[in-house]
């Protein structure tokens, strides 16, 4: 579905009021993982739009589209495309549409993760083979497949960002099997950074603190996790999707052109607490 490109008719700055800096002016950004207006990925698309980028978004299925389309319209997304990473051919179609419309891709944001509830709520020891396989395929291997498809479109270099969580580094109560899954994601980020570095494609992970999102609400005792984060973070506040979006713009911009293979925390300092 084609919506519209970012509005280029905005009133330019004057000598007394210079135009705001747009570090990603004209760049093409694909954001995968918007589920609704409160998603981490939504904070990213809004920040990228404000930074001057052309936005490409995806939605999981027809049910999800009803929640994603209002966000796409708000940011003036150039393309809104279906993408179920388990559906054969859908991912290839997304990248083909980007190539047809723009001829290139500059930034890819991977903000999807999944685990069947029965495995998410159980012990790692009891995780089923099928549940583990699906969690790894959707949450980790999909990043590998996207990077492979993005590589030829990032012929002038680019930035790939994946959303992680501190539970991939330390054992977080109730995060369960998603801890090993996020650890695998961060390891994959490092490997992709090395392999794609010669193409001037940077790959980094952003690791936000707990946020009140639809995805997060699937974690058992999630309210306790939120309260603990607010209490223990040195700044005493929770991170917002806007905070994550602003950091994503920085890591997609030339300002961090020599930074790759990193996992960057954005949690008000929560991760430094014992």
UniProtKB/TrEMBL annotation:
<keyword id="KW-0560">Oxidoreductase</keyword>
<feature type="region of interest" description="Disordered">
    <location>
        <begin position="1"/>
        <end position="20"/>
    </location>
</feature>
<comment type="pathway">
    <text>Lipid metabolism; fatty acid biosynthesis.</text>
</comment>
<keyword id="KW-0276">Fatty acid metabolism</keyword>
<keyword id="KW-0520">NAD</keyword>
<keyword id="KW-0444">Lipid biosynthesis</keyword>
<comment type="similarity">
    <text>Belongs to the short-chain dehydrogenases/reductases (SDR) family. FabI subfamily.</text>
</comment>
<keyword id="KW-0275">Fatty acid biosynthesis</keyword>
<dbReference type="InterPro" id="IPR014358">
    <property type="entry name" value="Enoyl-ACP_Rdtase_NADH"/>
</dbReference>
<keyword id="KW-0443">Lipid metabolism</keyword>
<feature type="compositionally biased region" description="Polar residues">
    <location>
        <begin position="1"/>
        <end position="14"/>
    </location>
</feature>
<dbReference type="Pfam" id="PF13561">
    <property type="entry name" value="adh_short_C2"/>
</dbReference>
<protein>
    <recommendedName>
        <fullName>Enoyl-[acyl-carrier-protein] reductase [NADH]</fullName>
        <ecNumber>1.3.1.9</ecNumber>
    </recommendedName>
</protein>
<dbReference type="InterPro" id="IPR036291">
    <property type="entry name" value="NAD(P)-bd_dom_sf"/>
</dbReference>
<dbReference type="InterPro" id="IPR002347">
    <property type="entry name" value="SDR_fam"/>
</dbReference>
């Amino acid at each position: 579905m084609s919506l519209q490109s970012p509005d280029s008719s905005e009133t330019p700055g004057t000598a007394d009021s210079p135009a705001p800096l747009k570090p990603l002016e004209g760049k093409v950004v694909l954001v995968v993982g918007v589920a609704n207006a409160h998603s981490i990925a939504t904070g990213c698309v809004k920040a990228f739009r404000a930074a001057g980028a052309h936005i490409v978004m995806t939605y999981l299925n027809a049910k999800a589209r009803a929640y994603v389309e209002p966000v796409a319209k708000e940011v003036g997304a150039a393309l809104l495309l279906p993408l179920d990473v388990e559906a054969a051919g859908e991912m290839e179609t997304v990248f083909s549409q980007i190539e047809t419309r723009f001829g290139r891709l500059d930034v890819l944001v991977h903000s999807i993760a999944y685990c069947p509830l029965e495995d998410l709520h159980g012990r790692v020891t009891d995780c089923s083979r099928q549940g583990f396989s699906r969690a790894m395929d959707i949450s980790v291997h999909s990043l590998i497949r996207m990077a492979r498809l993005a590589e030829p479109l990032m012929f002038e270099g680019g930035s790939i960002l994946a959303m992680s969580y501190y539970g991939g580094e330390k054992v977080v109560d109730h995060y369960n099997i998603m801890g090993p899954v996020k650890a695998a994601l961060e390891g994959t980020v490092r490997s992709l950074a090395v392999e794609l570095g010669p193409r001037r494609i940077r790959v980094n992970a952003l690791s936000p603190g707990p946020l009140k999102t639809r995805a997060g609400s699937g974690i058992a005792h999630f309210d306790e996790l939120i309260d603990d984060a607010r209490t223990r973070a040195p700044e005493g506040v929770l991170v917002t999707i806007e905070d994550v979006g602003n950091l994503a713009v920085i890591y997609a911009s030339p300002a961090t052109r020599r930074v790759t293979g990193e996992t960057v925390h954005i949690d008000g300092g929560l991760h430094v607490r014992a």
